[in-house]
Amino acid sequence: MVAFDSLVKSWQPGVVDVTELSLQSAWNWVKQLTCHGTTNTLEALQLAFKDAETEAVYLLTDGRPDQVSLHVCSQLNETSN
Description:
This protein has helices spanning 20-31, 41-50, 69-80; strands at residues 2-4, 8-10. It is mainly alpha-helical.
């Protein structure tokens, strides 16, 4: 999981096995999240896709990206090639 506003931060440095302990830890992390600043969508997606074990990304946001959507998509396409 990756949280993003002006800053981008991940819950863990990589993919984590699903266990009762990891689910509780993730839930505690989510409950403490707050929003401030801007919406750095590009950097959040780049961080999510950086992990080679990532199979899918679900983007949930409450704001318009800082970057133009076409720029975000083109940057992600370049990264995946």
